[in-house]
Q: What sequence folds into this?
């Protein structure tokens, strides 16, 4: 991996020297089909012509290419010796002219890691499917280029494909005699070019809109997936959300969609949630639901569709110069995804999901030693790859929500409109965005940016209430605190809500919106109000903070949380209680008690599923070891009770069924799961479809109740790519030392598994109920990770180093695991910063950013152990 890296300084030097006029890329993908032959990777021909200018004739530079071999090279008609100028990652370019033409004929390798040109063979029918994924710098695995975001150029793609295939790229395509030719793109960056090829199932539609100038905008729409998923493909709903999003963004951005067609491809073994390639957005195919799912899953898919669509303007039309401002596109798209979800679709409660899921991801990431400012210091491509995390996405989006409250929604949107028009097809820095927002709002953005974008950590806001002699509020203040490691106290625009019991329900009776700044802020507007049962200091979720409660408020929630009538306020209280649990201000058994008493009253299905996840995490990670068995039985009993009492066929019933399976361990609970599988047990309204069957099988496998024969029979029942991933995960979950040894060898000592099967194997290996079985791997882990990082791709390296971190030590081994982590860090100061988990900003190492719920997975070094 070090040889594939590119530093920011190198990129700046090259951008100052070169400008690119255009690419012509010809790919021959006919080698994708047929049996593997010979040694080495399966390859395809990649022929690239790059026309570019150099403002210092006679200077030297380099082009990027990661390929097994180069057949021929020429620069300005002069043949070059590949052995002399190509080192496997870079092509040396010497004595450049003012105008140049580079031609590279290479053999590039198909990928099994989801990076570059990924090749997937469907086990169901043997069909081959291809797609590309490049961010931040894997286009060079498919064609020669200048791999950095600020060297934009137009592209012409030509693809030869096997007979019967269809090929898609960013532009509209036509096919003649097996050759697909695509319309030239607008100037875009390398990382958002795209090719998808194979016998995909394809559905079409169209979008039309009258523009303010009287012209008519027509956008061809397409949606595609593997043939095996066609029976489950609800393209009509995908098109509905797409059209709603296009309407919303046209109304708010006042800049017509600039990239012609709009295809959306749902592809197999995808590492990310989705990718914003203009004209050809790619998604992980898990967004096609093979079984019954809750409304929350459809909301999540809609959010991702809108997130990627926002990128068409913010990220694709206007692109950051370098990955330092990665947040500029991801935070904006994350915020706009939720904003459009609420403003344009049926998911009107999208801000509840944002508060309860996205911000929970951000709060966790922002309290790890690997946290960093929103505007991180991205030194090289490894930093960029690892910066796709809860800070970049969820904290950045939360900060933008605070910014909207700070400058006003109208000023914010007008700033976005000016930004797009001023910088269309160009590259920007953070200062360009702040400049237009200062114009439209009249507010000084410098101080706001320094506090919110250039410092790390999360503040805690706590209410302080003093009652007068009549029992009314004499003074209400908000106290602001910060961690010693990140002491910045920020300006917050907040709403403070006062709640009391009325007719058995907890309702808001007063609200004030104010600016909180410094350690203590008095809220004069609420003086004289009747004494509250609950003070909610971030009502309506305007700012990014940890909400705390005074003693009276906490006591009220312990007794009446389930009676809160406002779903957003209720979700904010749940989130605050979870943060208190993680911060050891609320005992894990107390949090679990609240879930067992009040979760069944939760009306928002997304919040309910989040509560299930938090309760499981509280049990596994934060509960006293001696109480875990008791707590697990309690959760299983409550889950079964609420499963049986839920409305038959409802999404609440499905959520409780899945949660019950996740906490089942007692013989009677496992017997129920087995009975649901074989049909001897029934729960009225619960449809045990194929996806739910795998959910029920995993705990049976992990507790020794489903052996290899049972799992093979289930795979025969579901002999698909999805079924194979489920089976592999269940196989690795079995409670056997031999099983764990085999799983470890498959992931750490071999590269035979694809990225999807690596992920599934790791998920099965790491079972919280098998701490004794996995304890011997702590020493092996620290002995292996440096070699894994050096030998494997960044994606697989992240998966292995993060996923196999000894997150579930036995009680007697927990201190030893922390000591082993510290010892490894102390003895490997020269290791790659990304591997050390220092994070792009150089914060302390040793903790990890676990996968968040968003479009992309987050970086590494295991899970945080500080609260165990």
A:
């Amino acid at each position: 991996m070090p040889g594939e890296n590119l530093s920011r300084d190198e990129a700046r030097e090259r951008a100052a020297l070169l400008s690119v006029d255009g690419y012509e890329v010809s790919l021959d993908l006919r080698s994708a089909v047929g049996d593997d032959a010979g040694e080495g990777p399966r390859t395809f021909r990649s022929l690239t012509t790059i026309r570019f200018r150099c403002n210092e004739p006679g200077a030297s530079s380099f082009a990027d290419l990661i390929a097994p071999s180069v057949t021929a090279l020429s620069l300005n008609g002069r043949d070059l010796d590949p052995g002399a100028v190509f080192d496997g990652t870079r092509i040396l370019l010497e004595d450049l002219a003012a105008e140049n033409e580079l031609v590279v004929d290479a053999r590039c390798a198909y990928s099994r890691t989801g990076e570059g040109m990924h090749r997937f063979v469907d086990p169901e029918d043997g069909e081959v499917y291809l797609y590309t994924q490049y961010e931040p710098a894997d286009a060079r695995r498919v064609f020669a280029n200048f791999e950095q975001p600020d060297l934009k150029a137009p592209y012409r793609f030509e693809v030869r494909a096997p007979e019967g295939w269809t090929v898609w790229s960013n532009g509209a395509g036509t096919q003649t005699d097996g050759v697909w030719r695509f319309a030239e793109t607008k100037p875009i960056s390398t990382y958002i070019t795209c090719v998808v090829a194979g016998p995909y199932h394809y559905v079409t539609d169209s979008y039309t809109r009258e523009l303010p100038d009287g012209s008519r905008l027509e956008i061809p729409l397409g949606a595609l997936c593997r043939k095996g998923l066609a029976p489950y493909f609800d393209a009509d709903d995908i098109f509905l959300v797409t059209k709603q999003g296009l309407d919303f963004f046209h109304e708010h951005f006042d800049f017509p969609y600039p990239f012609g067609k709009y295809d959306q491809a749902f592809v197999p073994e995808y590492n990310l949630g989705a990718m914003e390639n203009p004209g050809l957005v790619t998604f992980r195919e898990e967004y096609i639901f093979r079984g019954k799912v809750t409304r929350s899953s459809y909301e999540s898919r809609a959010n991702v569709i809108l997130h990627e669509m926002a990128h068409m303007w913010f990220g694709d039309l206007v692109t950051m110069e370098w990955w330092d401002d990665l947040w500029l596109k991801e935070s904006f798209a994350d915020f706009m995804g939720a904003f459009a979800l609420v403003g344009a679709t049926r998911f009107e409660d999208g801000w509840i999901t944002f508060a309860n899921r996205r911000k929970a991801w951000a709060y966790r990431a922002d309290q790890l030693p690997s946290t960093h400012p929103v505007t991180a210091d991205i030194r090289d491509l490894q930093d960029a790859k690892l910066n796709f995390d809860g800070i970049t996405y969820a904290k950045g989006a939360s900060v933008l929500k605070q910014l909207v409250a700070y400058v006003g929604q109208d000023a914010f949107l007008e700033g976005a409109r000016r930004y797009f028009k001023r910088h269309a097809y160009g590259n920007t820095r953070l200062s360009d965005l702040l400049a237009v927002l200062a114009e439209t709002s009249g507010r000084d953005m410098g101080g706001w940016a320094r506090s919110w974008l250039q410092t790390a950590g999360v503040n805690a806001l706590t209410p302080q209430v003093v009652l007068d002699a009549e029992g009314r509020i004499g003074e209400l203040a908000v106290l602001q605190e910060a961690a010693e490691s990140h002491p910045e106290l920020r300006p917050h625009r907040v709403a403070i809500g006062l709640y009391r019991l009325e007719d058995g329900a907890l309702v808001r009776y007063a609200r004030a919106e104010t600016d909180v700044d410094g350690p203590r802020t008095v809220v004069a507007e609420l003086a004289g109000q009747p004494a509250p049962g609950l003070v909610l200091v971030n009502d309506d979720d305007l700012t990014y903070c940890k909400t705390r409660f005074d003693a009276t408020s906490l006591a009220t929630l312990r007794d009446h949380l389930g009676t809160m009538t406002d779903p957003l306020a209720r979700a904010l209280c749940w989130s605050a209680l979870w943060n208190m649990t993680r911060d050891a201000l609320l005992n894990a058994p107390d949090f679990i008690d609240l879930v067992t008493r009040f979760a069944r009253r939760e009306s928002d299905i997304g919040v309910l599923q989040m509560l299930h996840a938090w309760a499981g995490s509280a049990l596994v990670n934060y509960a006293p070891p001696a109480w875990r068995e008791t707590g697990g039985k309690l959760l299983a009993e409550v889950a079964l009770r609420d499963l049986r009492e839920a409305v038959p066929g409802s999404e609440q019933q499905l959520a409780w069924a899945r949660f019950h399976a996740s906490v089942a361990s007692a013989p009677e609970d496992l017997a129920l799961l087995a009975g649901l599988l074989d049909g001897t047990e029934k729960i009225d309204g619960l449809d045990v479809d194929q996806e739910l069957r795998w959910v029920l099988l995993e705990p049976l496998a992990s507790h020794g109740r489903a052996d290899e024969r049972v799992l093979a029979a289930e795979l025969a029942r579901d002999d698909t790519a999805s079924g194979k991933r489920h089976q592999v995960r269940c196989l690795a979950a079995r409670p056997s030392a031999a099983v764990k040894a085999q799983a470890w060898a498959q992931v750490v000592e071999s590269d035979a598994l694809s990225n999807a099967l690596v992920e599934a194997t790791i998920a099965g290996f790491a079972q919280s109920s098998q701490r004794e079985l996995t304890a011997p791997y702590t020493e092996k882990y620290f002995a292996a990770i440096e070699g894994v990082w050096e030998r494997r791709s960044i994606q697989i390296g992240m998966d292995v180093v993060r996923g196999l971190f000894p997150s579930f030590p036995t009680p007697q081994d927990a201190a030893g695991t922390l000591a082993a982590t510290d010892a490894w860090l102390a003895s490997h100061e020269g290791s790659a910063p990304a591997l050390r988990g220092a994070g792009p900003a150089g914060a302390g190492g040793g903790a990890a950013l676990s996968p968040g719920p968003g479009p992309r997975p987050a970086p590494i070094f295991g899970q945080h152990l500080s609260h165990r």
